[in-house]
Amino acid sequence: MEYNTTRDQMVIPEYGRNVQKMIEYLCTIDDRERRTKAAKFVINVMGQLYPAAKETSDFKHKLWDHLYIISDFKLDVDAPYPPPPPLSTSLKPEKLQYHDKEIEFRHYGKNIALMLEKAVDYEDGPEKDSLVHAIAQHMKKSYLNWNRESVDDTLIEMHLDKLSKGKAKLKQDFKFQHTNDILGLNKKRKPFRPSPNGKYNPRNKNRPQP
Fold first, then answer.
1. For the chain, domain boundaries
2. CA 142 to CA 22: how far, in whole Å?
3. What is the DSSP letter of 4?
4. How far apart are CA 190 and CA 158, in angstroms?
5. Average of pLDDT values for 193-209?
6. Are 67 and 75 in contact (CB under 8 A)?
7. Distance CA 74, CA 71 (A)
8. What was the pLDDT predicted at 210?
9. Per-residue pLDDT tens digits for 89-144
């Protein structure tokens, strides 16, 4: 009996061992024309394993790249795309560059600070006031996602003032949305559970009455 531990290591396991064996066989075909024809057949088989990805623009290109990689870059055929450089599989991707600025209040996220930066550039007027008020309401919702035990509207206003460097002010008649109303909107609706006898259960409020 043959075990996987005694077999060759899979280069790209997603395609399976049969595809890898077919590609290994391709490298043994002497005639270049026959080898190219067989390679195109293997490409079609590889594409059938991932039908959802056919809509992407570079789908075929990726398949040919994987074909070369699985063959250990030994395959020589007339392909529509040039083979990738062998070193491309061993190179580590570059590290992503993150924003240098620290997020002062992590429970609000970076987007709140960015929105405030745009809001303070607006000219004073109803449009700016509406935008600042909307951001303040969103800050309270974000705060409640982080701490549901207690929230003070004065604290939210202080954070708004600090994040905007004193440039975003709330009107005197502004009122935050009530905490209970916000938490009530976040409650998930209970799933429907049918009664054992199939009849309407008056305790099940999620099911419409007949």
1. 9-86, 110-186
2. 54
3. G
4. 37
5. 52
6. yes
7. 6
8. 46
9. 667 778 877 665 667 787 888 888 888 888 988 988 889 999 999 999 999 988 88
